[in-house]
Write a structure and sequence with these properties.
It is a single chain. The chain folds into 4 domains: 131 residues, 3-Layer(aba) Sandwich (Rossmann fold); 75 residues, Helicase, Ruva Protein, domain 3 (Orthogonal Bundle); 90 residues, Zinc Finger, Delta Prime, domain 3 (Up-down Bundle), CATH 1.20.272.10; 73 residues, no CATH class. It has 22 helices and 9 strands. The strands form 3 sheets. A 5-stranded parallel sheet has the order 2-3-4-1-5, sandwiched between helices. It has a two-stranded parallel sheet with strand order 6-7. α22 links the parallel β8 and β9. α17 packs parallel to α19.
C-alpha cells in the first residue's frame, strides 16, 4: 500500500469516526424527536407496564389494598374506574390485561353502538362455552353509552360471561344505570399530587428507551414544579407538555436544552383550566361558589367565580345563580341584594364578556358581605308543602271577588275587611283556608333589615293562635 493510499485511508477513517461520533451525540436525540413526530406521545410511551411502575392512587392501589390483591391474583370483579382525565384509568385497565388469563377486549363507547355491543357479548358467550374462561371487557368512556346500550351488558355481567371494567370521567351515580352500578364496584381515582407528577416527569427525563433520556436536557427543579402545577393533577397532560417543552427548546452551544421556570411560562403561556360545562366539575365549582357566598367568604367566592369565568362558563348562567341565591341566602336580611344581582344580570346582557366580569364580581362580593337569612326559602318551602297536600282547600268566601249579583247573593266577599280602613292597615281577618287557620310559614331572622323590622313577633302578626308549620 502506497503512502498516499494509507493517508487517504486514514483520512477516510478519521472522517467516518467523526461522523460516527456526531451521530452518537445527536442521533439518539434525533431518533427521539422522530418517534415523537411519528405520533406516539410521551405519555403513551411512558405508560406503566405493571403496578410497581404505577404512580399515585395509593389509597386504592397501594400494597395490600383490595384492588391490588384482586389484580395480582387475577380474581377480578366488575369495576367502574371513575376519575378526572390523566389519573390512570386506561393504564390500570391495560395492566389488568397483561395480568389476567381471561380474554381481554378493549371497547370504546365513543365509536361503538348497540349492534357492536351485542356482537361482543355473543363472542364472549361463545368464548366461555369453548374455553370455560370469561372475557374481561374494558369499556372506555362508558358514560357515553345510553341506557339501552348499558342494559345490554346486564345479563352477561350477571351470568359471569363477562367482567365489565368501565372508565368514566363523569359521576357514575348520574351516568351509569343503577342496575349496572349495583353489580359493579366503583373505584375512585383522584388527581395526582404535585410530587407524584414531578416523579413521573423526572422518570421520563431519565428513561432512554421510552422517555427523553437520550436528549441532553437541563431543567430547573422549580420548572418541573411549575409544570406539575400547570397540569392540575393530569399525568397525561404533564408528560405531553414536558415533551413539547423539550422539543421546542433549542440546544445551546454545548448541545444542552436548558429549561427554566420562566421559559416554561413563556411556552405554555397559561393554564387551561379543567372545567366541563356539562360535567361534574361544573357542578362542583358552582356548588363551591354558592356555598362560599352563603358562608360570607368573599375571597373564596371571588376565586370560584374566576375559576368559572376564566374557564369559559356562560356569564348569564352565573348571573342567574346570583339572582336565585340573593333570595335564598340573603333574602330580607338585605332586600338590596336582589337588586344587585338583577343589575349584574342586566350588565352581562348589556356589556358581554369580558367587561361584565366586574359586574358579576361586584354582585358576588355584595352577596358575600350581606347579612344572611334563609327565611324566604324556608317560608316558601313550607307553604309549597301545604299547597301540594291541601290543593283542594276552598278559598274563604270573604276573600272571593264578587263582580256579579249572583256571586254577591252567594256570599262572595261578605265580611271582607279592607285593611286601609283600620289602624296600621291591618286586621285580624283570617286569610288562610279554614283547615290551615293560624298556620305559620314566615319566621323572620334576627339579622339585617328583617331583624330590625321585626324585632318582636307581635309587630309582624297579631293573630294569637298562629301555628308553626
Amino acid at each position: 500500500m502506497t503512502k498516499k493510499s494509507v493517508k487517504q485511508d486514514f483520512s477516510t477513517a478519521d472522517l467516518f469516526q467523526e461522523l460516527k461520533d456526531e451521530f452518537e451525540q445527536k442521533g439518539e436525540a434525533y431518533q427521539q424527536q422522530k418517534r415523537a413526530q411519528d405520533g406516539t406521545p410521551l405519555a403513551e410511551r411512558m405508560r406503566p407496564h405493571n403496578l410497581d411502575e404505577f404512580v399515585g392512587q395509593q389509597k386504592v392501589l397501594g400494597k395490600g389494598t383490595l384492588l391490588r390483591r384482586l389484580i395480582e391474583k387475577d380474581e377480578l370483579r366488575s369495576f367502574i374506574f371513575w376519575g378526572p382525565p390523566g389519573t390512570g384509568k386506561t393504564t390500570l385497565a391495560q395492566i389488568i390485561a397483561s395480568k389476567t388469563e381471561s380474554q381481554f377486549l378493549p371497547f370504546s363507547a365513543v365509536t361503538a353502538g348497540i349492534k357492536e355491543v351485542k356482537a361482543v357479548m355473543l363472542d364472549a358467550e361463545r368464548y366461555k362455552k369453548a374455553t370455560s374462561r370469561r372475557t374481561v371487557l374494558f369499556v372506555d368512556e362508558i358514560h357515553r353509552f345510553n341506557r339501552a346500550q348499558q342494559d345490554a351488558f346486564l345479563p352477561y355481567v350477571e351470568s359471569g360471561t363477562i367482567i365489565l371494567i368501565g372508565a368514566t370521567t363523569e359521576n357514575p351515580s348520574f351516568e351509569i344505570n343503577s342496575a349496572l352500578l349495583s353489580r359493579s364496584h366503583v373505584v375512585t381515582l383522584e388527581t395526582l399530587e404535585e410530587d407524584e407528577l414531578v416523579e413521573l416527569l423526572e422518570r421520563a427525563l431519565k428513561d432512554r428507551e421510552r422517555g427523553l433520556g437520550s436528549i441532553n436536557v437541563d431543567i430547573e427543579p422549580s420548572a418541573l414544579g411549575f409544570l406539575a402545577r400547570f397540569s392540575a393533577g393530569d399525568a397525561r397532560n404533564a408528560l405531553n407538555c414536558l415533551e413539547m417543552l423539550v422539543l421546542a427548546t433549542e440546544p445551546n452551544e454545548t448541545g444542552v436544552r436548558v429549561i427554566s421556570e420562566s421559559s416554561v411560562g413563556e411556552i405554555l403561556h397559561r393554564t387551561t383550566l379543567r372545567y366541563d360545562k356539562s360535567g361534574e366539575e361544573h357542578f362542583n365549582i358552582i356548588s363551591a361558589f354558592i356555598k362560599s357566598i352563603r358562608n360570607s367568604d368573599p375571597d373564596a367566592a371571588l376565586y370560584w367565580l374566576a375559576r368559572m369565568l376564566e374557564a369559559g362558563e356562560d356569564p348569564i348562567y352565573v348571573a342567574r345563580r346570583l339572582v336565585h341565591h340573593a333570595s335564598e341566602d340573603v333574602g330580607l336580611a338585605d332586600p338590596l341584594a336582589l337588586q344587585q344581582a338583577i343589575a349584574a344580570k342586566q350588565a352581562v346582557e348589556l356589556l358581554g364578556l369580558p367587561e361584565c366580569k366586574l359586574a358579576l364580581a361586584q354582585a358576588t362580593l355584595y352577596l358575600s358581605l350581606a347579612p344572611k337569612s334563609n327565611s324566604v326559602y324556608v317560608a316558601y318551602k313550607a307553604a309549597a308543602s301545604d299547597a301540594l297536600q291541601t290543593g283542594r282547600e276552598v278559598v274563604p268566601l270573604h276573600l272571593r271577588n264578587a263582580p256579579t249579583s249572583l256571586m254577591k247573593r252567594l256570599g262572595y266577599g261578605e265580611g271582607y275587611q279592607y285593611a286601609h280602613d283600620f289602624e296600621e292597615a291591618r286586621t285580624e281577618m283570617q286569610c288562610l283556608p279554614e283547615n290551615l287557620a293560624g298556620r305559620r310559614y314566615y319566621n323572620p331572622s334576627k339579622y339585617g333589615w328583617e331583624g330590625n323590622r321585626f324585632k318582636t313577633e307581635s309587630t309582624l302578626h297579631t293573630t294569637p293562635d298562629r301555628k308553626d308549620n
